[in-house]
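It would be a great kindness if you could assist me with a short task in structural biology. Thank you for your consideration; the sequence and its tokens are set out here.
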Amino acid sequence: MQSIIHPINEPNREIMAYSSKKHIKTKKPWALTANRFICFIDIMGFKNMVMRNSHAEIYKLLLTLSKLRTIAEEEFSFDNQKDSLKSVSFSDSIIIFTKDDSIDCFEAITSASNFLFSKAMEFEIPMKGALAHGELSINITSQVFFGQPLIDAYLLEEEIAFYGIVVHDTLEKFLNNNSLEIEAEFLGLYIECSAHFKSGKINHIMLNWLNFLKPQAGLSKRDIALSLMKKQREKTSGGPRKYIDNTISIINEME
């Protein structure tokens, strides 16, 4: 059986250029309830992976994703305690959330979500997800996560019919209200495209994950992304292929 796991390399320097580690702040405790940013991500085809691979292979896959989450938390948290981002996983779902809704935290979750998604795609683990903003209660010790933005992100993710991470209107409002304070390099990680939803094509802001792909000599990021879709097509048949076709359409629009 061909392994579905790829070795994890350290994040390349181009990716790290987007990190907001330049900010050095005094550590503040996490409030139980606060306005935060949240990204809800779902692993596509997880049930099929479980059926077609051994228990050990699936465990390795989840361990790979766990290591990627750790890298994202450590590299993109902005303060000297690496404390502005946290993430959890439940079977085939991953949730990333921030300490508060400061500009720093927005930049942190933007980079972390983009990094995690693009690296997973490079490892041939397709995903889809949504980013939202609002009041969220978090108790990591008791594993309690509750709030409207979690519901918003989950429901929007359910509607998506392609591989990508889209922006809920709560976060879009934050973007519009704070665009002058957000650094251009982070605004540039978002793009509005004709997104494919189960109800049809709708213009939506989404993360441009092509920005975080590992450079390859002689290939554009569009070429790299399309080659990843070709690999997905080689192991997908029937209805699920619509996600690949839809993603190809968006990749072409992004570039």
Remarks:
- The chain has one domain: 30-254.
- DSSP finds nine helices and eight strands in the chain.
- The domain at 30-254 is CATH 3.30.70.1230 (Alpha-Beta Plaits).
